[in-house]
Design goal:
With 153 residues, the chain is mainly β. The protein has one helix at residues 137-152, and strands at 12-16, 24-33, 38-45, 54-56, 59-75, 78-85, 90-93, 98-115, 120-125, 131-136. The radius of gyration is 15 Å and the shape is globular. It has one domain: Jelly Rolls (Sandwich). It is built from one helix and ten strands. A hairpin with a 4-residue loop joins β2 (24-33) and β3.
Length: 153
């Protein structure tokens, strides 16, 4: 599987306008899901577009494959640290960091591998850091199984 050949994957578009927040415009594609709690995905960001404000609940490894990924950590609604992850950058986190990610001027393509021993992947947050929804491995697996069945028919 060539992770750079993005046309071979089935993508889900996440696009939203939220008052007072940057434009949300990114794509996700599930590569694999295991019964042991491992999820592999690709994410694509449109140029300078953001993903939802969130916190990982799972151990997460990411590798920037194309473009660059901007990241900003937040504590109590304020940015505490921000940086750019260039092409080739690998990062690991054990979860619980509240952050926002966005593509650089050419966007970004990023590989993510998550391990959720308890099945919980991430919390989507509002601008005050309150949980809007929690995504679990079983939520993603249902979506994955539904799409796989659609492709087989």
């Amino acid at each position: 599987m060539n992770l750079l050949d993005i046309d071979q994957f089935q993508w889900q578009h996440h696009q939203e306008i939220v008052a007072g927040a940057p434009p949300i415009d990114y794509w996700s594609s599930i590569l694999s899901i295991s019964n042991s709690g491992r999820l592999e995905m690709l994410y694509r960001w449109e140029p300078n577009a953001h993903c939802h404000f969130h916190r990982h609940r799972a151990e997460t490894t990411s590798i920037v494959l194309q473009g660059e990924l901007n990241v900003a950590d937040y504590v109590n609604g304020k940015v505490t640290n921000s940086w750019v992850r260039p092409k080739g950058h690998r990062a690991f986190g054990e979860g619980d960091e509240v952050h926002r990610e966005w593509g650089g001027p050419q966007g970004a393509l990023v590989y993510f591998s998550l391990y959720a021993a308890d099945g919980l992947l991430a919390d989507q947050l509002d601008s005050q850091g309150n949980i809007i929804r929690t995504t679990s491995l079983s939520d993603v697996k249902k979506h994955y199984d539904k799409n796989a069945a659609t492709l087989q028919h």
